[in-house]
Amino acid sequence: MLTNLHVKNLALIREEEVEFKPGLNILTGETGAGKSILLGSVQLALGGKMSREMIREDADYALVELAFQVEDPRIHQALERMDIHPEEGQVWLSRRLAGKRSTNRINGETCTLAQMKAVGALLIDIHGQHEHQSLLDRKRQLEILDEYGKEKLAPIQEKVRASYQMYLKLQKQLNADQMDEVQRKREVSFLEFELQELKEADLKLGEDEELERQYRKLSNGKQILETLDRVHACTGYEDPSGAGDRLGQALQMLGGISDLDEDLSPLEEMLTDLDGLLNDFNRELTDYLSEWEFDEEEYYQIEKRLDLINHLKAKYGNSVEAIQKYQEKQEQRLKKLQSYEEYKQALEQKLQGQKERLDQQCRILTKYRREYARKLERKIQEQLTDLNFLHVDFAIEFSSQGYAANGTDQVEFMISTNPGEPRKPFGKVVSGGELSRIMLAVKTLLADKDQIETLIFDEIDTGISGRTAQKVSEKMAYIGRQRQVICITHLPQIASMADAHYSIEKKQQGADTFTSIHLLEKEESVRELARLLGGAQITERVLESAREMQDLADQQKNARLKS
Description:
This protein is α/β, with parallel strands linked by helices. It is 57% helix and 17% strand.
């Protein structure tokens, strides 16, 4: 659940910190006090849009932080898969806006907006003032049905999704390989030419590297020989100025005095080793020079072979390995084209088989959906009756579409709110206030199925009053038993059901205007209910009505807890 909200330098808010409670959290305040700013700050911390204009004029930056306490093991697992590790069950989301840039963090680590939105989708569900309009969207209606029956529907949906992807893949493959006979023969001829060229080349792995080494040696033969001759002269024994001859003289002189001082023996041994090493070096060098022979025919053949390999690299790949892979690919393509009709027929049969599997899985999904649709119809009908739809008739109608990742079903929510009238789509019957109540009915039904632990309702009470408002308040209290609920309202019936009641006020301090929020004690809550009941003038009678309303709400909540 959402445990803490910290907002700084955002619009009318200088700096506020709110600790939310379990159950039903109610926020009330005068129009324009800043209730929407508070909700907007939550949306910002979940990855919503930010602009420089949101920062208070006397500040350089704005900051919003949310703290969540995660209890559900499924959410823990989902966060772990996203490489987010709650510390003692806590997750912190933070956004800081300075200038045109924002810094986003999850548990202190910088993250992307996409990551913040993904985490937010696991932790909180915000029902804004206009979200109920989504009920007019048939796609959203199908999502509601699937969410209601997800225990049984989700596994078959996954099978349908996988089958559909395979069906699309095979269909794409078949379409890509469609060609007429002239085109097929032309491509076969071209492939045969390429493969004949590669077969005749008969390339070997590493061949190009070895040839380049030999070519480099032969191309620089003159320089190599001239240099080695000079090296031989410098290190040999024939020339009195050579290192070998000089080393021999030094060894002879040292041998003449080594008997006079035993400490000279190690030096004599070292010099003897040097003489042996130099002698070995000269012998190896002499052998190399004697074996050296420049073969012009060999040089020509190497050069010619390298030209061929480089030509093939330019056409088919930048290495011998890449050329061989290309050759294998083209051989497979040629084989396919040479038996094109058999290949096409086999692919068509495979596509048909996949289509039959997809069709069967879609039928199973439709069957299960229809079963859950009947259950959902009854449940929504009951909930709507509870919400003061006195003569409601609700149904879910099915129609078919082409194959899709979510099956072939389309659904439409149909309703009649007056006796004798036929059911019609939502958009042709219900008002905005009625849509809000229907959405509340849906949220109530999904309260024990949805793993999201926090729900926010922003003025879901628009357009209702009296008995209907009382019914809505009871539904909000019911959801508050299953989930943490944060609700912005202007109706006393809903506010009276609060487990925690907060007041949002707009204050002035000199020329400065700012919004503040604080948790109300019981008597303060009564006065706020009285304000909602009686407006600007709060009389003793209004206070008594407010106190009675809160007492009745407490009795109703206690009765629900016992039941």
